[in-house]
Amino acid sequence: MDTGTAILGVPLAQSAGNGAFWSLLVIGLILVGAGAIYDRHRRQKKQADLDRLLDRDPRLDHTVIPCGLRNDELAWWCQGLPAGDRNNGVRYAVEGPMRVDLGPGMPDELNVAAFQWWWEEERRDNNRRNRGIGGFGPRTSSGMSLGGSSSTMGRRRYVEQKTPAAVVKLPVTVDNRVIIRPESLFGRAGITRGGHQFESAEFNRRFRVEAMEQHLALALIDANFQQLMVENFPDQTVEIFGSLLLVAGTPTHRDDSLTGTIGLLPAARQDAHRILRAVPPAYWRAVGALNRGR
After folding, report:
1. Which residue segment(s) compose the domain that 27 sits in?
2. pTM over cut 0.90
3. Do 51 and 90 reside in the same domain of the chain?
4. What's residue 150's pLDDT?
5. Is 98 in the same domain as 44?
6. For residue 181, what pLDDT is reported?
7. Which of 15, 73, 93, 124 is deepest in the core (most CB within 10 A)?
8. Which pLDDT belongs to residue 13?
């Protein structure tokens, strides 16, 4: 055998191929190990910051059921928290009382919880293989080939989404939902416009309001409330339904001394508290919460 083409009886091309395979395998194992170490460190850092937040504010407690509600109950009650296509849940939840002044007959403290809400959305990768014979053949109205296999729909995967959120346990049960969402890009451009309209054109451009009873939306969203939302909370969702006030979306500020999501939790509670204080007395009267002699 030619020593120029073989070493110890192993062809050079085969030897080089084996060497490349083992090199890639080692590199892959190193990357997987480094990723696992980094992920563990990140989780430990978040847990340490969560513990530090709880130590800093003795009125705060860690919870897995914000305001007494499980994941499925939050997803059912709150339209502002997407349920997703498969799994959802709560992470890093803290809660504790905050002082409020809502009017005569109302409690002066309410429980306010902040957390990260996550959900999984289904995605399908495009897959043009096996669409009938040669890619042709009869199709459904959606364009799917009747001659293809299930791979026509593409590979299914789930992408995790998440948002900071806060909920306030109200002292009254509201039977008619009011939800204020950021308007879509088409809505902001004036191409589409839906929901209830208010006197502020800027508010109407930025937000879509859906309410089961229009008079409750009008009682809640007075001129001051509209201005507050436009100037301070243009990208957040506010919802009142049942015994909850929900505020979902990135808070107005963060605590840079705390890591990632943990640094948003104090601000999420403060934003919910600020929005709650801006609810007009007319709204509480409309839902029968004031002057109950509690």
Report:
1. 15-56
2. no
3. no
4. 43
5. no
6. 95
7. 93
8. 55
Does some domain include residue 217? yes
Let me know if residue 138 belongs to a domain.
Answer: no
269 shares its domain with 181: yes
pLDDT for position 26: 80
Supply the pLDDT for residue 142: 40
Low-confidence residues in the chain, pLDDT < 70: 1-17, 35-44, 127-153, 185-194, 290-294
Same domain? For 184 and 49 the reply is no
Decide if 157 is inside a domain. Answer: no
202 lies in the same domain as 115: yes
pLDDT at 294: 39
pLDDT given at position 211: 93
Looking at residue 30, its pLDDT comes to: 79
- Shared domain check, 170 and 206: yes
Sorted by sequence, the CB contacts under 8 Å of residue 88 that are 6+ apart come out as 71, 75, 81, 82, 117, 118, 119, 120
Domain count, the chain: 2
Q: Report yes or no on 83 lying in a domain.
A: yes
